[in-house]
Write a structure and sequence with these properties.
Length: 392
């Protein structure tokens, strides 16, 4: 798995990109799956492609991940899983977040595995009856996160009810799973407690007659920090996209390559006088005559309005955003020495692989007081996705 680092600008001539684009490197996705497989083996890898593949595009990412040896796909909603099936993807898919309005029948018909916390069980069984096809179910235990999953006091009865339906031929309990709360902070003790509760839940299900294909609890941080959490399958999300789940470790530290580059062509570059105010509220004023660069990306494109001094790379230099982020645009102060003619139509990169010393989603997360997960998932549909790498 040693492929050349690739940047958007070196792989696709800028002139062939749309004026605003989120460039997604499918070779980086494949590389990251290779890293994850190595770290997780002998456990297999589920590529989590919820939220449109963390903003990267669920279908192209899913295809690249499967090509690179991911065995499963994971999504939150049944609707997301149906989208993958509609695109012709027939790999195992698990969907785990439902409401009483979720279309369990469509899921069973499409052969989608369903997470089940308890309340869904009778609805899933009804869907299996209607479709005359046994549902494939992963029972979820809440080992401490306090979101979905059965609480431990309800586990015994949930397993009992599921096994009864399994004996009737209406479903198969193929998995037991849970989700970790603090795996990104490896020194915290709660992960041990969660793993203990998970092992107990598995033992109870197996004793009750569940012949489990997969037991799974690890998310990206646990894949790297807790080998004892790997079990049969790991659910990799943010790491598939080349981003680190840890505050203190970068993508490069983990051997991962960020897959998304968000960039645009500069809209205008102009000279302005001393004390020129910039953007709504005039919160920034130039100190001395200067040159302003206008980048046609704003909060409607997913640039956080609350960010401060987010970095933008132009012609090999990184500049902070000055003034407020507007709906459609941001401004950088290029300084008195910048040549408006030379920079007209230049490429502005908000974040990318970081290979060239340019800004990353981690830098934007710091500028916005959030996490890299949010930076990539919030890039809006107004920014066209462009795929590079083999098979793009
Ligand atoms: C989103 C999600 C994941 C992936 O988490 P990452 O930290 O992005 O790896 C795994 N499991 C569940 C249940 C999730 O909701």
């Amino acid at each position: 798995m040693t492929s050349e680092p690739t940047t958007a600008s070196s792989s696709v001539p800028t002139s062939r990109l749309p004026e605003r684009a989120a460039v997604v490197d499918l070779d980086a996705i494949r590389h990251n799956i290779g890293v994850l497989r190595k770290v997780a083996e002998p456990a297999r890898v589920m590529a989590v492609v919820k939220a449109d593949g963390y903003g990267h595009g669920a279908v192209p990412v899913a295809r690249a991940a499967l090509e690179a040896g991911a065995s499963w796909l994971g999504v939150a909603h049944i609707s997301e899983a149906l989208g993958l099936r509609a695109a012709g993807i027939d790999a195992p898919i698990l969907a785990w977040l439902h409401t009483p309005d979720s279309n369990f029948s469509a899921a069973v018909a499409a052969g989608i595995d369903l997470g089940c916390s308890g309340w869904e069980l009778e609805r899933i069984v009804a869907a299996a009856r209607e479709q005359e096809r046994p549902a494939r179910v992963h029972l979820k235990i809440d080992t401490g996160l306090g979101r979905n999953g059965a609480t431990p006091d309800r586990w015994d009865s949930l397993v009992g009810e599921a096994v009864e339906h399994q004996d009737e031929g209406l479903l198969r309990v193929v998995g037991v799973f849970s989700h970790l709360a603090v795996a990104d902070e490896p020194s915290r003790p709660e992960t041990d407690t969660q793993l203990g509760a998970f092992r107990e839940a598995i033992a109870l299900a197996e004793d009750a007659g569940c012949d489990l294909e997969v037991r799974h609890i690890a998310n990206s941080p646990a894949i790297f920090s807790r080998p004892d959490a790997h079990f049969d399958l790991v659910r990799a999300g943010v790491s598939v996209y080349g981003l680190s789940p840890f505050e203190e470790q970068s993508s490069a530290d983990l051997g991962l390559r960020p897959a998304m580059t968000v960039r645009a062509t500069l809209s205008q570059v102009k000279r302005v006088p001393d004390r020129q105010g910039v953007s709504y509220g005039l919160l920034y004023r130039t100190r001395g005559a200067s040159t302003l660069g206008l980048v046609p990306l704003g909060y409607a494109d997913g640039v956080p309005r609350t960010s401060e001094a987010g970095p933008v790379r132009i012609a090999g230099e990184t500049y902070p955003v000055v003034g407020r982020v507007a709906m459609d645009q941001i401004v950088v102060d290029l300084g008195p020495g910048a040549d408006p003619d030379a920079l007209a139509g230049a490429e502005a990169v908000l974040f990318g692989s970081g290979d060239d010393g340019g800004p990353t989603a981690d830098d934007w997360a710091r500028a916005a007081g959030t996490i890299n997960y949010e930076i990539v998932t919030r890039i809006s549909p107004r920014v066209p996705r462009v795929y590079i790498g083999e098979g793009a």
